[in-house]
Amino acid sequence: MQPAIFADHEIRRVYDEETETWWFSLVDILQVLTKQPVCQIARKYWNKLKEQLAHELCTASPEMKGFSPRNLKYMRAILSGRLNTPKEGLK
Asked: Strand, coil or helix: what is 57?
């Protein structure tokens, strides 16, 4: 893991060589943007945001399944276009 520096704060990040994609810690980013001294508050903010996103996705696409707050890998795969069918597994 190679941390990036943003506004004098370290943001955790990992590079996926297979997809040539950087993955950043959203909790770290939210902690900086919301100016929170501890990551627990940013984590709670992210959990609430996940719930809202899951609800909006279920409302917008009721025929699609798997939009629970706990199912972020599935959401990420759909958004990145790597998932061809709902039953296909992820790495």
From this structure: helix
CA 31 to chain centre: 14
**62 C-beta neighbours (distance < 10 Å), count:** 9
In the three-class reduction of DSSP (H, G, I as helix; E, B as strand; rest coil), residue 76 is classed as helix
Per-residue pLDDT tens digits for 55-66: 888 888 878 776
Its pTM stands at: 0.53
Residue 78 tokens read as 């759909």
Cβ 50 vs Cβ 42: under 8 Å: no
Whether residue 85 lies inside any domain: the answer is no
How many structural domains is the chain composed of?
1
Domain that holds residue 14: 4-80
Q: How far apart are CA 35 and CA 70, in angstroms?
A: 26
- Decide the pairing of beta strands 9-11 and 4-6: antiparallel
* Structure confidence at residue 80 as a pLDDT band (50, 70, 90): low
